[in-house]
């Protein structure tokens, strides 16, 4: 169970970081729209970034870090649910 939680949490932390990195280097508007929709799907807590207003001060950095951390927690909860429903029977052997 702990391994499943750790993997889920790390995926939840990695996805927003990759999306933020990729979004910085997107130049075409249509590709930017794809990343926007993808980020809302894979990083639902990116909605918290609306409070930043796109700034680069310390409060905005703290909000970004909080959003990424909470996304990891959300992915860990989803991973725990998957483990409880599907993988728990296989690990009790």
Globular, elongated, flat, extended or rod-shaped: what is the shape?
elongated
Oligomeric nature of the chains? single chain
- Fraction of residues in H or I helices: over 70%
Report strand %.
under 5%
Q: What is the H/E string?
A: HHH
- Judged by helices, strands and strand pairing, the structural class is mainly alpha
For the terminal residues, how far apart are their CA atoms? 14 Å
Kindly provide the radius of gyration, computed on alpha-carbon positions and rounded to a whole number of angstroms: 16 Å
Unreliable stretches, pLDDT < 50, 5 or more residues? none
Mean pLDDT: 83
Count of DSSP H/I helices: 3
Can you characterise this structure?
With 93 residues, the chain is an all-alpha fold. The model has no long low-confidence stretch (mean pLDDT 83). The two termini are 14 Å apart. Helices cover 76% and strands 0% of the residues. The protein is elongated and about 45 Å long. It has one domain. Helix 1 (2-24) runs antiparallel to helix 2 (29-42) and helix 1 runs antiparallel to helix 3 (58-91). The protein has three helices and no strands.
Topology:
Elements (H helix, E strand, L loop, with lengths): L1 H23 L4 H14 L15 H34 L2
Helix pairs in contact: 1-2, 1-3
Task: Tell me briefly what this model is.
The chain is mainly α and 93 residues long.
State the main characteristics.
93 residues, 3 helices, mainly alpha
């Amino acid at each position: 169970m702990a391994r499943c939680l750790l993997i889920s949490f790390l995926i939840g932390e990695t996805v927003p970081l990759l999306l933020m990195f990729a979004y910085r280097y997107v130049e075409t508007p249509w590709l930017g729209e794809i990343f926007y929709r993808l980020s809302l799907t894979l990083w639902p807590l990116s909605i918290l970034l609306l409070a930043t207003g796109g700034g680069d001060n310390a409060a905005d950095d703290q909000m970004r870090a909080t959003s990424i951390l909470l996304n990891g927690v959300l992915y860990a909860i989803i991973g725990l649910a998957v483990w409880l429903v599907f993988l728990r029977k296989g690990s009790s052997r």
